[in-house]
Amino acid sequence: MPKNIVQLNNRFIQDENQRRRYLEEERRKKNRFMGWVLILVILLFILPTYNLVQSYQTLLQKEKQLTELEQQYKDLEKSQKEEAALAARLKNSDYAAKYARARYQYSKEGEVIYTIPNLLP
């Protein structure tokens, strides 16, 4: 047998209902405010994080460029040393004559020249 429960509708019950609605509305306002604060904090963390990632990518590019430039420097230094050594050897007149004969196929009268690839410095 179901019993019917009747709620009293007196001044105290009305005041309590009104107070509960007021507290619930205040809680909603507080939650809404905290939601906006949370969104603002997230945005404030996203912007510096984006800048940090972008700076890190730039740093990686610069490091890669630095290694490439160091390798180019080593290659240029090596070729410069080779050129300097060749210039020093070309100061010797006998070597210069042999080099010109081999490189540019100069010959003395009656000589036959046979070229061998990759023989010259």
Automatic annotation (TrEMBL):
* Keywords noted in UniProt: Cell cycle, Cell division, Coiled coil, Membrane, Transmembrane, Transmembrane helix
Please indicate which superkingdom the organism of origin belongs to: Bacteria
Q: Which InterPro entries has this protein been placed in?
A: DivIC (IPR039076), FtsL/DivIC (IPR007060)
Keyword Transcription regulation attached = no
List where the protein spans the membrane.
33-53
Q: Which residues form a coiled coil?
A: 52-86
The GO biological-process annotations, alphabetized, read as:
cell division
Keyword 4Fe-4S on this protein? no
PANTHER family attached to this UniProt entry? CELL DIVISION PROTEIN DIVIC
Q: What is this protein called?
A: Cell division protein DivIC
The organism of origin for this protein:
Streptococcus massiliensis
